[in-house]
Amino acid sequence: MTRVVHSRADLEAARAGRFGDTAVVMTMGALHEGHLALIRAARASAKTVIVTVFVNPLQFGPNEDFDRYPRTLDEDVRMCEEAEVDVVFAPAVDDVYPGGTPMVTVHPGAMGDVLEGAFRPGFFGGVLTVVNKLLNLTAPDVAYFGQKDAQQLALVRRMALDFNLPVEIVGVPTVREPDGLALSSRNRYLSTEERTTALALSAALAAGAQQATAAGIRSAARAVLDRAAAADPPLGTDYLALVGPDDFLEVADDHAGDAILAVAARVGGTRLIDNVPLRIAAAHPAGGEKNGDEAR
How many degrees, rounded to 5, is the angle at CA 279 between CA 150 and CA 44? Predict the structure, then answer.
C-alpha cells in the first residue's frame, strides 16, 4: 500500500524499518506515462520506491505558468498505488523551504547558462536547488530522471559528481505518444490544431537523425521547423541545437561521436521541449560519410 506523507518527520517515519536500496523519482505531479516509465525503472531496481510530488516555485520565472501548472495529487496517488510505489512525498512549500525563499542556492555554472538556461534565466538554479534538497530529504541510493529533460539530467549528474553526492543518477529514455509527441504535463494545454503543429518538434528530430553529418543534421531539422513556422497555428522556435552531451555546447560541423539534438518551441501559449541522442560516425576513410547509430 502506498503511504502518502507531507512532512520531513512523516517521511522519516515512513522510511523507518525499510531495508535495501531506495530509489526516488522526482515529479511536479500531473503524472503521465513518462513518469510511470521512471517509476517502473525504479521499481525494478530498488526495494523501496519514493515518488516526490512538488511544484517547485523556485524554477518558475515571473511570466511562467506556476499558478496554471496542473495539480492533481489524488490522481497522482492513485497512479502511484497502481505502480506499487511505497511512499509518495508531497510536501508544502514551507516544508521544502522552511526559511522562505532560500538565500543559498545551487549555481548551475556555465552549462546552466545555455539553451534552456538562456531562455529561462534562473531555471536551472531552481531545479538543482530543489533536487539537492529532495535528495537530502529522501536519501536514495539511486534517482531516476527522464531523458526528455536532457540538459536537466546532465546538470543533475554533474551536481552529483561535483558535490560528491552518494547517489546514482539514472536517465530513462523519452516516452512518446503514438504520433511521436514527447509526453509532457503541458501537452494538455494544446488544442487539436496546436497539437498538430507541435508534432514538428519530433518530426524535426527524426529528420535530423537520418543525416550523416552535423551540418546535415542541423539543416534537415531546421527545414522541418521552418515549414511549421508557416502553419496555422504557427510554431515559434526558441532554439535548435546540436550539442555535446556533457557540456551542452554546440558541436562542430566535423564532429564525430555522441551528441544531442535539442529543440524548444512555442505553439499557442504552450512551450515544449524535445531532444534525441545521436551518435555521429566519423568520415569514411574513402572520403564518404557513413552514418552511425542514428537516433538511439
Answer: 55
ω into 233 cis (within 30 of 0): yes
Q: How far apart are CA 207 and CA 202, in angstroms?
A: 9
Identified catalytic residue from 35, 107, 255, 284:
35
User: How many C-beta neighbours within 10 Å does residue 32 have?
Assistant: 16
CATH class, domain 3-172, is alpha beta
What does the mean pLDDT of the chain come to?
Answer: 94
b/e map 147-163, b = 16+ CB within 10 Å: bbbbbbbbbbbbbbeee
Question: Which of the four CATH numbers 3.30.1300.10, 3.40.630.30, 3.40.50.720, 3.40.50.150 does domain 185-290 have?
Answer: 3.30.1300.10
Instruction: Let me know if 198 is exposed, middle or buried by CB neighbors in 10 A (0-12, 13-18, 19+).
Output: buried
Active site residue 6: no
Quick: pLDDT tens for 164-205.
Answer: 999 999 999 999 999 999 999 899 999 999 999 999 999 999
Q: So where are the chain's domains? A: 3-172, 185-290
Quick check: do 3-172 and 185-290 share a fold?
no
DSSP-assigned letter for residue 148: G
pLDDT 10s digits, 230-284: 999 999 999 999 999 999 999 999 999 999 999 999 999 999 999 999 999 987 6
